[in-house]
Design brief:
The protein has 4 helices and 2 strands; from the N terminus they run H-H-E-E-H-H. The chain has 104 residues and is mainly alpha-helical. Strand 1 and strand 2 form a beta hairpin.
């Protein structure tokens, strides 16, 4: 599969308009966890809520689970889950911890 080349001019416009930032998702999550630990982070249609503090705790557990099963630097991890928002939120929040624990 060949991916398109990004349009530098277009991305500059997005940055200038404040639509894009140079921070990664894990960096934004870490900042939100530190600044707003009790604020609602995610809510689903069934009424399940997680604060940033709870999402952080879930992400630490996920990262620890992967490490305890031998995930390390250079390993490839594939995850298959039903279309659940919770899994996606936990994975996004866990990325920085997964990389740190795995030594990446």
């Amino acid at each position: 599969m060949k991916y398109p080349t990004p349009d530098a001019g277009r991305s500059q416009k997005y940055y200038a308009a404040g639509l894009w930032r140079s921070e990664t998702i894990p960096q934004r999550m870490t900042a939100s966890i530190a600044a707003l630990p009790e604020k609602l982070a995610v809510r689903d249609a069934a009424g399940c809520d997680l604060t940033y503090r709870e999402l952080d705790a879930q992400s630490i557990r996920l990262a620890g689970f992967l490490r305890s099963h031998g995930v390390g630097a250079g390993d490839v991890v594939i995850a298959l889950d039903g279309n659940r928002w919770m899994f996606n939120a936990e994975t996004a929040a866990s990325l920085d911890r997964i990389f740190a624990i795995a030594g990446l």
